[in-house]
Design a protein that fits this description.
two-stranded antiparallel sheet; 4% strand; 404 residues; mainly alpha
């Protein structure tokens, strides 16, 4: 048996030296008559890719793709699209493509073919997604996982063409993210740049209510894509709470600036007595930015927010809020925390109600930024989010789960 790369080179060479009419006739035969033959799935998929003139997979924008109608005619007929989709999905479920399915760049040929078909328009996207959904009804185990990852990849590339009004589709996409949350964070999407710009604009000192509302709307419509920006959101919050230098100024109406309960310290510099205010992270923060993040994140549907979002960095975000509240509660400006703490209390209640098991696990975990306090429950209790009785109950649950 010859190495696979030789067959791939042969298929590529055939597409290069055969006449255009011969390539078209071969493709037509494969997509019409080939379904009844025992063809090599890998070679068929490779040939369909190589014989396509629209072979760029990564979508850079949503502008209509210019291509000659005669070159894409096979991708505009329902029969040929059904046949090509079947070849691709059969190939997907016949071979082990797990590593490539999870990869950012190295996609298996069967996924490349599905994405090339989908690039032709909204109808093709919905047909391919529908075909994957049909297969999902009859598959389980690894095959089901590979179909879910394929569906998620299709959504990443064509989010505006998917019928997200269908509950079954949304459920399957959420399940797919739970399978590959870490991989999902690195995949490409044409919404990446616009989402990044929206996050930056909404979480700046000069943000407008309209920009925040746009991000809230996106959180409702495309929560899985927005949640991939949690790391950036956390970075912007961390940066906002850095101690202000003497040369740095912010709008005083929205910035909370803390002062130590002990007041200024005395120091002597070059023989002169001075009053020194020692500040560190969390002594100041922009209230509107921290509230805006809660508005945006709270707009994510609860089944997503307290499901797969927990694998995408949600608890890291909550850790940052806890750290800020803990530090501010030790300062003279603690009275200005009431609004932020009120919103956080509501959020924590939703967390506990929607996913009590993970809530208990999080309370028992360590807050890496406040490691001296031990478990998160200790920070929560110190900040007044939970009572001593609730903390003791969590300790009992943690010991019980460890003994089982």
């Amino acid at each position: 048996q010859k190495p696979s790369f030789l067959w791939e080179n042969l298929v590529s060479r055939c597409c290069q030296i055969w006449s255009h009419s011969h390539v078209v006739s071969c493709r037509l035969w494969i997509l019409s008559e080939g379904r009844e033959e025992k063809l090599d799935l890998v070679k068929v998929v490779r040939f369909l890719i190589n014989s396509s003139t629209f072979n760029a997979v990564n979508v850079e924008s949503f502008v209509d793709i210019p291509m000659a109608l005669d070159e894409s005619a096979w991708g505009r007929s329902e029969d040929t699209v059904r046949s090509a989709t079947k070849f691709a999905l059969d190939c997907l479920l016949t071979f082990d493509y797990e590593r490539k399915l999870r990869s950012r760049n190295e996609l298996p040929d069967c996924i490349v073919l599905l994405l090339l078909i989908a690039r032709l328009g909204r109808k093709q996207v919905q047909f391919v997604s529908g075909s994957i959904m049909d297969r999902l009804r009859n598959e389980e185990g690894d095959n089901r996982n590979w179909l879910l990852l394929s569906l998620l990849r299709l959504y990443a590339c064509f989010p505006f063409s998917m019928n997200l009004g269908a509950v079954a589709l949304r459920t399957n996409l959420k399940e797919a993210v739970e399978i590959c949350a870490n991989d999902w964070l690195s995949w490409r999407s044409p919404m990446d740049d616009s989402l990044q710009d929206m996050v930056e604009a909404s979480l700046s000192i000069n943000s407008s209510p309209r920009s925040v509302q746009s991000l809230v709307d996106t959180a409702k419509k495309h929560p899985l894509l927005l949640l991939r920006k949690l790391d950036r959101i956390i970075y912007l919050l961390e940066r906002d709470a850095l101690a202000l230098g003497s040369a740095v100024t912010k709008d005083e109406s929205s910035v909370v600036v803390g002062k130590s309960l002990d007041g200024s310290l005395s120091a002597v510099v070059q023989g002169k007595p001075l009053k020194v205010d020692v500040k560190h992270w969390g002594y100041n923060y922009t209230e509107t930015i921290w509230m805006a993040v809660l508005d945006v994140v709270s707009a994510v549907p609860n089944e997503v927010l307290f499901g797969c979002a927990l694998k995408m960095g949600l608890t890291d975000l909550l850790d940052a809020y806890l750290r800020l509240v803990f530090i501010q509660s030790q300062l003279r400006t603690s009275d200005r925390l009431s609004k932020l703490k009120g919103r956080l209390t509501e959020f924590f209640e939703l967390f506990k109600t929607n996913n009590e098991k993970t809530w208990d696990t999080w309370l028992s975990s360590s807050n890496c930024d406040l490691s001296s306090l031990g478990a998160v429950r200790n920070v929560m209790m110190s900040c007044g989010f939970i009572s001593h009785e609730q903390a003791l109950e969590n300790i009992k649950k943690a010991h019980k789960s460890e003994s089982e």
